[in-house]
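pinned: reference chain
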Amino acid sequence: MFDVIIPIYNVQENLLIACFDSVQEQSFSEYTVWVCDGKPRKETKSLVTSYGFNYIEQDNEHYKRVGGARNQAVSFGKHPYLAFLDGDDKWYSYHLEEMAKEIKSASESTVIFSSVCDTHYRLESYKTGEVYEMERLYGHYEPYDFILNHPHLAYYWFFGHPPAPTSTCVKRNAFEEVGGFDERFSILEDTECWMRMCGDPRKTDSLKEFKPVMMVSAYHTIGENNTTNRGSQSPAFSQDMESVFDANSDLFMEIHPFPSEQDKPKKVGEEEWLSILKTVEGLNRTQIFNI
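pinned: its structure tokens
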């Protein structure tokens, strides 16, 4: 049923082991695992194959950045659904089983499913160097009324409510129809892809639906080695991260300009629409540079 897609780049071994263990411990067994390594090493390949997973060396000439790693891995699989999992994250044992249940009960037009992640943030201030720590849920938003009432308008929802790849499953044919992840992005590539899959209501009537899965089924690592902290788990770490964020945000908004009051769909109430407009800047993940 699922091709499990795991991109890795210089991930610490203890995190990889936790990630791979969490896949092996799934209560649902109809899946094939593809690990695409952006910084290949013999030790990593041995670890991946010891789990019986498929190991792929990223072709950085033709498949660039983390989006390219995922695209390359997807090209090897054949299952009708893709389950994404970042190499420094992990699933709880029931994740795929619950996703399979949601998929079977969903409408044919539903192409994206996403649950909630536990998260422990450890972020370093760009300005002061101070470290901030907090625990919270990632992908849990109050209220859910808009997306539950208008699942075909997921494009607008994603502006301010981006699902993490690790808690997201998508329909393969819908993913392939839009060409997968845009490999120009170092960040925001996930949200940008989900938006193209569901469709911009201002440009097309062929809209697909998103279904939020109301449960915590994964753990999302945000720490000193992540891209947001200029960490070593992304090739972007060697660049000035503020310029990386700015360039990616500018490209994102060029492709997906913010909606306005005039874009309100006919079946959406005024208050509902204004509440969505208030959240659109949630896609700007550069907050860390302002603390």
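why pinned: The CA atoms of residues 147 and 157 lie 7 Å apart. The chain has one domain: 2-290.
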